[in-house]
Write a structure and sequence with these properties.
The chain is of the alpha+beta class and 219 residues long. The protein folds into two domains: 76 residues, Glutaredoxin, CATH 3.40.30.10; 130 residues, Glutathione S-transferase Yfyf (Class Pi), Chain A, domain 2, CATH 1.20.1050.10. It is 60% helix and 8% strand. Strands 2-1-3-4 form a four-stranded mixed beta sheet, with helices on one face. Helix 1 packs parallel to helix 3. The longest helix is centred in the middle third of the chain and has 32 residues. The radius of gyration is 17 Å and the shape is globular. Pfam families: GST_C, GST_N. Homodimer. This is Glutathione S transferase D1. InterPro entries: Glutathione-S-Trfase_C-like, Glutathione-S-Trfase_C_sf, Glutathione_S-Trfase, Glutathione_S-Trfase_N, GST_C, Thioredoxin-like_sf.
Length: 219
């Protein structure tokens, strides 16, 4: 039985869940949620997720939201001996730290800088850009001498972080000054299972949305 995924393709956290599912070879039923139309506020969805956020999954009646929690659940429930979320406590702790860094620093710093511009028509805030660059610099440091984000193998951390970094890149924010990030990004694009289907397609939709919003702002 496939897991129901409620998502919007342009969302980095939603694409992270698609990457998790692809890496674990889990089938999902795709249920699009139109946030701009308020579909996340409908009573049926609120029963699944009172915080009315995407991504949300439903697995045999069990509902869960927050992409990184979903990733951990999928590995624990269906991953077997998968190294996506290592069982060794220290190795797992590094993966958790990187996931929390994405949740608490990198993605919020991007959202704080970029979304007011694209959705609110506000001018770029240079202090917010500085903070985003600071988070990218931390990621660059984490990757020093490390093949992947949490060691020598692909983990949930890479799949979550690549959803964010690819969004930053697609938004037109250069990552060129972070050579470890650039090297890692190219590696994950090549080695994450079904990367183009799970992440690339949604990125194209995100880019189209950005272009359309910019066009409206410029009119």
């Amino acid at each position: 039985m496939a897991i129901d995924l409620y998502y919007t393709p342009g969302s980095a956290p939603c694409r992270a869940v698609l990457l998790f599912a692809a890496a674990l070879n889990i089938n999902v039923n795709h249920n699009l949620v139109d946030l701009r139309a308020g579909e996340q506020l409908k009573p049926d969805f609120l029963k699944l997720n009172p915080q009315h956020t995407v991504p949300t999954i439903v697995d045999d009646g069990f509902s869960l939201w927050e992409s990184r929690a979903i990733g951990r659940y999928l590995v624990n429930q269906y991953g077997g001996d998968s190294e996506l979320y290592p069982k060794d406590p220290k190795a797992r702790a590094v993966v958790d730290q990187r996931l929390d860094f994405d949740l608490g620093s990198l993605y919020p710093k991007f959202a704080q800088y970029f979304y007011p511009q694209i959705f609110g028509g506000q001018p770029a805030n240079e202090e917010h850009l500085k903070q985003l660059k600071g988070s990218l610099d931390f990621l660059n440091t984490f990757l020093e001498g490390s093949k992947y984000a949490a060691g020598e193998g692909l983990t949930l951390a890479d799949l979550s972080l690549v959803a964010t970094v690819s969004t930053i890149d697609t938004a037109g924010i250069s990552i060129a000054e972070y050579p470890n990030v650039v090297r890692w990004y190219e590696l994950v694009k090549k080695t994450a299972p079904n990367y183009e289907e799970a992440n690339g397609k949604g990125l194209k939709m995100f880019k189209l949305m950005i272009d359309n919003l910019k066009l409206k702002t410029e009119l």
